[in-house]
Amino acid sequence: MCRQDLGFIGDNYILGNDAYIGLAPPGDAGSWQRDCKGYQFWTRADKNGHYTIKDIREGDYNLYAWVPGFIGDYRYGVTINITPGCEIDLGDLVYEPPRNGPTLWEIGVPDRSAAEFYVPDPNPKYINKLYVNHPDRFRQYGLWERYAELYPNEDLVYTIGSSDYTKDWFFAQVTRKKDDGTYQGTTWKIKFQLDNVSQNKTYKLRIALATANIAKLQIGVNDSQADRLLFTTGVIGHDNTICRHGIHGLYRLYSIDVPGTLLVKGDNTLFLTQAMNTSPFVGIMYDYIRLEGPSSSTST
To answer: In what residue span(s) does the Rhamnogalacturonan lyase domain sit (predicted)?
Structure first.
């Protein structure tokens, strides 16, 4: 048996209600996602951040956690040895989510899913009546083809302050099918304004992915040229979420330094290019995106 109170910290403690907490084989934070050989035991915290895990197989484990509404992964730093009949009280544990500065803008909800984004109606010839007027709209067949129908010539443009991610952010950044039957990668743009820029300081871009499948995300700031990219993930993911009509796979969080010299006062554009183009099923789903100002603030 393992008991714990889980809290999340900002200026004040926040109870870790509804957190997912589990024991899994020792590893790095988040490594439980990729483990397929060991035993795992999971539960959810109550409204006060309390939880109990029972009926655990004896062995060595790390304790892992994540909570809807916060980015990142928690790992208790000490290996926990479970023996028959033992009771372990870990006391109060605190997780400090990644944060460098104040939020300048954000898109989505950090819950490891793309379900809050725009999921289109399916092609009428593919409709599955089980999912008509159903919250799991993403279960409909062929939704990857709808992106090219909605954006036949130009890719998605999202404007901070006027766009609505539930209506204007397509749930998956997929390829576009061309007239000759081949596919091309897509470049999405996030347009935002800054009232002032500290060019001698560093901003922080947080990009949480809900899933990826043979994808390569390339990021540029006010410049989309491949030879002047701010960041690239390289080729990532084998989740097959798009073709299996899913909405999440393995969670990935990228924290990217943005030099103030790349930003300007007034209009700015963030370019998100998914460069792989081998099939309709390569692509990514975003969980949450946030731009933070320089580290003059510690609020979360």
So the answer is: 17-89, 103-291
